[in-house]
From TrEMBL:
Coiled coil residues, start to end: none
Keyword Membrane included in the entry's annotation: yes
Phylogenetic lineage: Eukaryota, Viridiplantae, Streptophyta, Embryophyta, Tracheophyta
Residues in Uncharacterized GPI-anchored protein At5g19230-like domain copies: 40-171
Keyword tags: Membrane, Signal, Transmembrane, Transmembrane helix
Name used for this protein in its record: Uncharacterized GPI-anchored protein At5g19230-like domain-containing protein
Transmembrane domains' residue ranges: 186-205
Record flagged with keyword RNA-binding: no
Organism: Sphenostylis stenocarpa
InterPro entries, alphabetized: At5g19230-like, At5g19230_dom
Signal sequence, renumbered to the chain: 1-36
């Protein structure tokens, strides 16, 4: 007589865990981005300290900018530092016709950026041996070619990525043209995944009842 009751008590935590799994997945997928290493974190903090001295608000981390900076850094990591001018300036603009960075359109697509509505956005790679944070930061803040963007109030978001001797800063705006809004396909894929998880959850709960 007690077996059904015991089973019920045992299964409830299991059902609860099934309910929490999609929530955990969503939290991991859509939570605020964090920089993945100490050098990137140090440079990002230094850039915002510099912005403060210019009476500008700090840059916020943008997940799609982080994604793009990681992809670009990986793309150019084997390029010798003396070729840094080849990638400057690199803009993210409608049509994805920027030819400075190889396979840029592929990286834009992977990060779910809607290139058709993006006209503002800039990619700023720096190459420094062993990515010494102080020297990297100096490149961004004491070189007019980079500082002109950091001094521009229209840029409000950023992403940082690094590979080998390369660090890549991607700047975004808070306007529709530069916020790196997701592509339609990215929205559709996210919705499809959410519906699939929800359907599986309902099936499992009904099966356990």
């Amino acid at each position: 007589m007690c077996f059904p009751l015991t089973l019920k008590i045992t299964m409830e935590p299991f059902k609860l865990s099934l309910f929490l799994l999609p929530l955990l997945f969503a939290f991991i997928t859509f939570s605020n981005p964090v920089l993945c290493n100490d050098k990137e974190d140090s440079v990002f903090k230094g850039i915002n300290s510099y912005r403060q001295t210019q009476n500008l608000p700090p840059l916020n981390q943008v997940s799609k900018a982080n994604c793009l900076s990681d992809e670009v850094a990986e793309e150019i990591e084997k390029t010798p530092c003396e070729n840094v001018n080849r990638f400057y300036p690199s803009t993210v603009s409608g049509g994805g016709n920027n030819l400075n960075i190889p396979n840029l359109q592929k990286h834009i697509d992977k990060c779910g950026i809607n290139i058709n509505t993006t006209s503002d956005g800039v990619i700023l790679p720096v190459c420094v041996s062993k990515l010494e944070p102080t020297i990297v930061l100096s490149n961004y803040t004491h070189s007019d070619r980079y500082a002109q963007f950091l001094n521009n109030s229209k840029y409000t978001g950023a992403g940082l990525g690094s590979e080998d001797d390369w660090m890549v800063l991607v700047l975004t705006t808070n306007t529709a043209a530069g916020s790196f809004s997701p592509s339609t396909s990215a929205h559709a894929n996210a919705a499809s995944v959410g519906l699939l998880i929800f359907a599986l959850l309902l099936l499992l709960i009904n099966h356990l009842d």
